[in-house]
Specification:
Blueprint lengths: L1 H21 L21
Length: about 45
C-alpha cells in the first residue's frame, strides 16, 4: 500500500515540475470573455 502512495506522490511531483518547467501552461480552468492570442487552433 505504501508503494502506491509513494508512486503517486513521485508521479504528481514530476507532473507539477514538468508543468512549471513548461512555462506557458494555464491549469486554472476556462476563462470566458478574455482574448488569448497564443491559441494554436481556431474554435
Amino acid at each position: 500500500m505504501w508503494k502506491i502512495v509513494l508512486g503517486f506522490i513521485v508521479f504528481a511531483g514530476l507532473a507539477i515540475f514538468l508543468l512549471n518547467k513548461g512555462g506557458d501552461i494555464d491549469i486554472s480552468g476556462e476563462k470566458h470573455g478574455s482574448v488569448r492570442t497564443s491559441d494554436s487552433y481556431s474554435a
